[in-house]
Structures are given as structure tokens and as C-alpha cells.
Amino acid sequence: MPQLNQYANSGVQGANGYEFQKHCALYILLNRYTSLASTQYFICLEHHEDFLFCHLTDDDLVSSIEAYQAKKAANTWRLSDDLFEIIHKMTNVGLDLINDPMPKSSSYDHSLAFISNHDIKLSIKERGTKEIKDTINVGNEEVLFINLKPEVAKKIKDEIDKLSGSNPDNAVQLDKVSFGFIDLNKAYSRQKQTLIGQFSLIFGNTVVDHSAAVETLIRLFREAENALNQGGIVQLMDPSKRVYSNDINHAIAVITNEQKAYQLWRSRADEIANKMQISVADRSKFELEFKNSFDLFKDVKQTEHQRILTFVIDNKSVFNNHTSDIECIEDLYRQFMNKHNTQLMSSTIKATLFAAYIEVRETL
Questions:
Q1: 242-244 β-sheet, strand order
Q2: Which phi-psi region, left, alpha or beta, contains residue 46 (left: φ > 0; alpha: ψ -120 to 50)?
Q3: Is 90 exposed, middle or buried (0-12, 13-18, 19+ CB in 10 A)?
Q4: Could you state, in order of their start, the residue ranges of all structural domains in the chain?
Q5: Does pTM top 0.70 for this prediction?
Q6: Is 163 exposed, middle or buried (0-12, 13-18, 19+ CB in 10 A)?
């Protein structure tokens, strides 16, 4: 039976003040985007932990989970009651993940990461002895619990035993814990600039507005973060808490396809306008409408846009009959107008067909 979880996201209260966690999740996603792009996974926000990366098998079983506790800090993290409480909570999260009814593969495993944008200095010093320490910072970004100095690891284990009542299951989870440094500035605006820089390095000039692209991905995360854990019950089976890899890939495809349409329009605007009879006065409106079409294609309520996209998909043979983009678009528009009636204005049909052509062309 599902258990009440004191760490469950409670809606409005749980939705406030978590920008740093979303930025951390996106930072990790972008850092690993190349290797993740061809895999199936989903990301959960404020669900069991600050965020989770859940990797799936071809049969949609959970093969592994990376759970992250992400904390901003004004000062260096040290061995303290606060940190011991956090680590204890992380080991409980590990147990919750094992008990979660989400179908898992036979080789399922998980990791439990504590990350911060400030140095983490784990040290002990007894009277008359030299300080023993492990430091996690920009020059040493991750240390696994199992690789800590034995004396440091023993101190943490002793404290977790006190907090857990010497529960051996919590002790086992300690071996899955790691400590990491994440290179994000303390200021919100500077964090965004770091993410925009990451996005720019990956996608370069395939995207014009990297800032808008990053905001699009953050918006995906925000929708999942704001979903309620009904009655405080946390389950990975709850699809409202997930941001799927397909959603992320689709969002990025929309962003890049919009850029390709924009580049084609800007480079050959006069020719396209002439062929499709778009007046000078209507050009700005045409440009805005084809940009908006990429988002409208994924909205099932936009039946007219869906119909135009389906028409282009069903008539891909036209792509084989012409040697230029403009001839294809002109042919598709002519065929659509001969075969279909629509409530959309002529200018909107042209802009939507133009966007649909670019979207379908990229799948060939």
C-alpha cells in the first residue's frame, strides 16, 4: 500500500523557491545530452527527492535511478548535524525507491547524490592528530562515499546509525551516496547565463535564441514540479511528475525546426512571398504564424493545424517531385486548397503549411 511521505511535494507550498533544483537538473541534462539523446528516460521534480533521472529499458522498466539532493549554500559544507540529517534522509529515499511499486528490471540499481554549488569539506580532527579530510570543489567535482577516507566515512556512518536506530538497511544505502560540486553561481540570473552558455555550446547556430530555448526546457520542468502528490503519496507511477525524454527531444526539435524555417524565410523571403502571394504588409504576420505553428502542432486541441500537418505527412511524395523547398511548399499549398476546406484564413494556412513542410522534411 502506498505510504505517506513527509518529503512529498505539497503543491503551492512545494512549488515555491525551487529554481536552483530545476537549474541543477537542466545543467546535468545539458552536460550529458549527447549520451542521453538516444536513450529512454524521464526526470521527476520534487518527487522522492529534489530530482530524479530515471532510466528505462526497451520494455519500459526502470533500469536505474539517479536521485539528487541539490542545495544552495553561502558557506562551505562541513560535517555537521544539518549535513548528517540530509544524508540520513538520502538513505531513506534509497529505501523508498526500492519499495516504490514502479516496475523495475532485474538488474535495477540507484545512486544517491548530494550536490551543491559551494565547496564540501568533510574533515575530522582529533586532539593531537593531523586533520583528515575529503574536499569536493571545482577541482574535484565528485567523491563517492565508498572512496572517502576511512576515518571520514566511519564518522558519517556512526552518525547515520544514531539517526536510523542502527538500521542496517540505511547503512547499506550509504554505499550508494556521493558528494558533488555543481558549477552554478549563487545568483539566479547568473545560473541562467551558465545554462544558456551550455545550450549554445551544444546547439550552436542551429538555434537563434538560446535564452528562449532554455526557458522552454525550464517550463517543462516547472509543470512537473507543480503537480501535486495527492494526499502526500509519492509514486513513480504518477505520470504527472515526469518530464519524459521524448518531451525533451520534441521541445528541442521544435526549437531547431523553428530556426531552420526562420533561416529559409529570411534567406529567400522575396521568392517565397512571391510564390505564395504574401503581401509586404503580411510578412511580419506570416513569420509570427509559422513560428507559432511549431507549438500548435503538438496541441491536440488545434485540429486545423493538426490536419495540415497530417496532410503534409500523407503527401511526402511531393518531396520527390521537386528540386527546391519553395516548389514543394507551393505544390503542397495548391493541393491542400484543392482538396480541403478549412476555417483558417489563407495567410494562416500558408504559414502553417510552411512550418509543417519544415517539420516533416526534418524527419526524412
A1: 142-144, 177-181, 104-116, 62-71, 49-56, 41-47, 242-244
A2: left
A3: buried
A4: 12-216+226-235, 268-361
A5: yes
A6: middle
pLDDT tens, position by position, 262-320: 889 989 999 999 989 999 999 999 999 998 998 898 888 899 999 999 999 999 999 99
The cell for 107 is: 538488474
Residue the block writes with cell 542502527: 166
Q: How many residues does the chain have?
A: 364
Which grid cell sits at 138? 571545482
Cα–Cα dist 126/149, whole Å: 15
256 Cβ partners below 8 Å, 6+ apart? 203, 206, 207, 362
Burial class (CB in 10 A: 0-12, 13-18, 19+), 165: exposed
- The grid coordinates listed for 165 are 536506530
Q: Cell numbers for 74, please give them.
A: 553561502
Write phi, then psi, for 37 (nearest 5 degrees).
-55, -30
